[in-house]
Design goal:
alpha+beta; Alpha-Beta Plaits; three-stranded mixed β-sheet; three-stranded antiparallel β-sheet
Length: 269
């Protein structure tokens, strides 16, 4: 029964998406609107997205897995209760290789209880078997070539000129194509609005000169945020790039993420 219902729902959504896509005038109007950032983003009045280029960097070597960022994001952005997160923390636990193994590392265990909002329990691996353990904050990767924007049939998901990837809920038809296309798992369907939802870098804050909530509350400054078009003296982003070997997640996909990481290993996915 559940399989039939699922198939029926998928077909219905595909039909709705195709119908919307065929309605060229409406779709084009939607695209034109969102490209001008005239959306339900909460952006400040008079804000010019062409004069900014927002970017985020994560120093995983600093993250202590306290969960303050995920909790602050949940409250600031009114994220629905339950297992829905715009940003979350993952714990990576790497064991020592088994005796006689030719591998340099053993098994990789990843967990994220409640998105890491309330911290993490004891390490699941005995100390004598542990090779390495670290925390990795996750969020929208701000892709330059956003798969989510490419598959949206009505232009509800789009790349803002300032580097943010946004969703206009007035145009989103809830087809879920963007959720399936995102290779980083950073999108979900809101059970409240029935539209796609994701990290917006706290757009309502950054367009008013404030930091994203997750950056504001981090006690160890593991998240670095800034404006590449308007650097400040001793700019934290530029300093981070200069002093660290930075990398992105899943670079082989060609999405060119603008969220840079330092302090992560190849096991992070």
């Amino acid at each position: 029964m559940s399989q039939k219902l699922s198939r029926r729902n998928v077909l219905a959504k595909i039909s709705a998406a195709l119908a919307a896509a065929c309605a060229a005038p409406a779709a084009q109007a939607a695209k034109a609107t969102v490209q001008k950032v005239l959306v339900e983003s909460g952006g400040a009045k008079g804000y010019d997205p062409t004069k900014h280029k927002w970017a985020m960097a994560i120093d995983a070597s600093r993250c202590i897995g306290c969960g303050s960022c995920a909790d602050a994001c949940k409250k600031e952005n009114h994220v629905p209760e339950g297992h829905y997160y715009r940003t979350w923390i993952e714990r990576y636990v790497i064991t020592k290789p088994k005796p006689g193994s030719d591998e340099a590392r053993g098994e990789v265990l990843v967990d994220s209880p409640e998105g890491g909002m309330h911290g993490f329990g004891p390490c699941p691996v005995p100390k004598e078997e542990l090779l390495q353990s670290f925390f990795v904050p996750k969020l929208c990767n701000l892709c330059l070539h956003s798969p989510c924007a490419q598959v949206c049939p009505v232009g509800a998901t789009f790349d803002s000129p300032d580097g943010a990837v946004l969703v206009d809920r007035k145009y989103c038809i809830g087809c879920g194509f963007c959720i399936q296309a995102c290779p980083y798992g950073c999108r979900f369907m809101s059970p409240v609005t029935h539209t796609a939802e994701k990290c917006t870098l706290c757009y309502h804050r950054i367009t008013r000169g404030l930091k994203p909530a997750c950056v504001e509350v981090c006690p160890v400054q593991a998240r670095i945020f800034g404006d590449l078009k308007n650097p400040v003296p001793d700019d934290p982003l530029q300093t981070f790039y200069k002093n660290n070997r930075v990398q992105t997640l899943k670079p082989h996909l060609g999405t060119e993420p603008r969220v840079m990481y330092a302090g992560i290993d190849k096991e992070v996915r």
